[in-house]
């Protein structure tokens, strides 16, 4: 990483008025050398020409700083890996020498022993253990069993959740099918409903006009009742009672009216009235005599 200090950037108005020589020469040099190394590593002969501005120099300088830091870190890790590889090779040569001195070299062992040793080494690598001790294998197998149990628990949980989601999905599909069927039915009912609504609109206009007519009649009848002295105290029961009283009065006044109508048959003149009275008396006497004759004849017939 470069130890060059960060200088404050100049305002854009000042940069537009000054030449390229007024830029930070140290940063420009670092950027140019970094670009040349990067293009050289990529197999390019030269760096393309471009305008060096305050913004581009600042951005490229940040990229160069980050790249150099990461390159240095990668170099440190690579050197460490090389050192470890050399140590492992030295250790392997020493172990090989010990095995050859004890007669346990790979070339002198039976094929089945070599195969078993290779399988044991592969299992140790698979279990990520550094030795082939029985305790290490048991610990590793216990760890694998625990992880297997955890995986089985997670699998059971996922299966349960999948079953619930499948159930929800089936219900959602059934509901969607029902909604689609309902939508199709509603779409089929649109035309008849529109026709019915048009009829209702027509009837509504008629009802509105009738309402206005009835309201006007109601106001007229109310004014008429007010003129004749109608009050809310006049109820149906009172009207029935008055009608019955009227019938009683008619029954009482009917004989009087009949008598008065009989007097209407009399002539208006007094002399004529006297003559009419005498005529009525004669008719009465004739009727009385006729009645006596009838009675006498009836008595005579009964005696015979």
UniProtKB/TrEMBL annotation:
Output the superkingdom of the source species: Eukaryota
**Residues covered by region (Disordered):** 1-22
Pfam families cross-referenced by the UniProt entry:
HAUS1 (PF25762)
Subcellular location(s): the record lists: Cytoplasm, Cytoskeleton, Spindle
Q: Which GO terms describe its biological process?
A: cell division; spindle assembly
Q: List, alphabetically, the GO terms of the cellular component aspect.
A: cytosol; HAUS complex; microtubule; spindle
**InterPro entries, per database record:** HAUS1 (IPR026243)
Query: Where is this protein chiefly located?
Result: cytoplasm
The alphabetized UniProt keywords are: Cell cycle, Cell division, Coiled coil, Cytoplasm, Cytoskeleton, Microtubule, Mitosis
Keyword Glycosyltransferase (UniProt): no
Regions of biased composition (Polar residues) lie at: 10-22
The record's similarity note reads: Belongs to the HAUS1 family.
- PANTHER family per UniProt: HAUS AUGMIN-LIKE COMPLEX SUBUNIT 1 (PTHR31570)
* Identification of the protein by name: HAUS augmin-like complex subunit 1
Q: What is the lineage of its organism?
A: Eukaryota, Viridiplantae, Streptophyta, Embryophyta, Tracheophyta
């Amino acid at each position: 990483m470069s130890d060059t200090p960060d200088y404050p950037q100049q305002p854009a108005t000042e940069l537009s008025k000054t030449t390229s020589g007024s830029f930070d020469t140290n940063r420009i040099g670092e950027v140019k050398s970094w670009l040349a190394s990067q293009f050289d590593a990529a197999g390019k002969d030269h760096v393309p020409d471009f305008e060096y501005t305050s913004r581009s120099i600042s951005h490229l300088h940040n990229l160069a700083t980050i790249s150099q830091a990461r390159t240095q870190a990668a170099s440190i890790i690579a050197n460490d890996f090389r050192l470890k590889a050399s140590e492992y090779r030295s250790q392997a040569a020493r172990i090989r020498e010990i095995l050859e001195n004890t007669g346990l070299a790979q070339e002198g062992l039976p094929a089945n022993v070599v195969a078993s040793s290779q399988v044991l080494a592969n299992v140790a690598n698979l279990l990520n253990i550094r030795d082939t001790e029985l305790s290490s294998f048991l610990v590793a197998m216990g760890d694998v069993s625990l992880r297997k149990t955890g995986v089985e628990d997670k699998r059971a949980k996922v299966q349960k959740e999948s079953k619930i989601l499948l159930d929800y999905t089936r219900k959602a599909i059934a509901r969607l099918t029902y909604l689609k069927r309902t939508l199709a039915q509603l779409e089929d009912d649109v035309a008849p409903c529109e026709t019915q609504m048009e009829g209702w609109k027509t009837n509504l206009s008629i009802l509105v006009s009738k309402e206005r007519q009835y309201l006007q009649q109601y106001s007229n009848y109310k004014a008429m009742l007010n003129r004749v002295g109608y009050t809310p105290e006049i109820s149906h029961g009172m009207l029935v009672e008055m009608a019955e009283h009227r019938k009683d009065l008619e029954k009482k006044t009917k004989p009087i009216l009949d008598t008065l109508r009989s007097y209407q048959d009399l002539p208006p003149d007094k002399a004529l009235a006297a003559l009419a009275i005498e005529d009525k008396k004669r008719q009465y006497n004739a009727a009385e005599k006729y009645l006596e004759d009838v009675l006498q004849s009836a008595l005579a017939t009964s005696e015979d």
